[in-house]
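seq as requested:
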Amino acid sequence: MHECRGKVTLVGAGPGDPELLTLKAVRALQAATLVLVDDLVGEAVVALAAHARIVYVGKRGGCRSTPQAFIGKLMASAAHEGEHVVRLKGGDPFIFGRGGEELEQLRAAGVRVEVVNGITAGLAAATSLGAPLTHREHAQGVVFVTGHARHGGEAPDWPALAQAARQARLTLVIYMGVSGVQAIQDGLQSGLPGSTPVAVVQRASLPEQRHAVTTLERLADTVARERLASPSVIVVGDVLRGVQAMGQAPGQALAA
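struct tokens:
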């Protein structure tokens, strides 16, 4: 195998607000010759790669997502040709961003890979409400979990997660969960009180952010009533009690 002259940088674009990018991410975008962009990355972030060719590889306009194997081959071939490739991902590459899969694929192809972390949407969602994810009085840890099972795979064990959250005082942060929100609610209620505070945040950090603060027993009804849709993050736990105490009634939809 010939020595690879280029490299690939997996860059986390954060939740959408370009001001939440790290300096390292900005430098990588400015140095890139080719940028492969995920579907949840905003144009204000992409615009920072002023000297690069831009290729969109995420789901657009109802089309199918670009196959992961094709993306990996494209990155590897461009790097072997001497390009500095940036794979620009929403949130953080290593939190439900398939960064681990791409890292393995590129290393197997002999490509040098760097990773630049980004602020994950779950953190931005809670912060946008003025809520922490951990708190000495309410939560001693946090669990990030996807609500979208891999094709043909099993869904998360929501009753087990609920039991763990209650016993260990954990905050649950659920990505890609609104389409299966009723099953999530039913599963979590087997181990958590129906009065447990819940927030659903759509497009966290962006000007068009919408969110609702509710309780677990009203979660599915709130999502349907307020027409909250993807991309959204669901936060479950007592860390949200401070948000409720500020006068936001359960189920109330709020503008950012």
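The radius of gyration is 19 Å.
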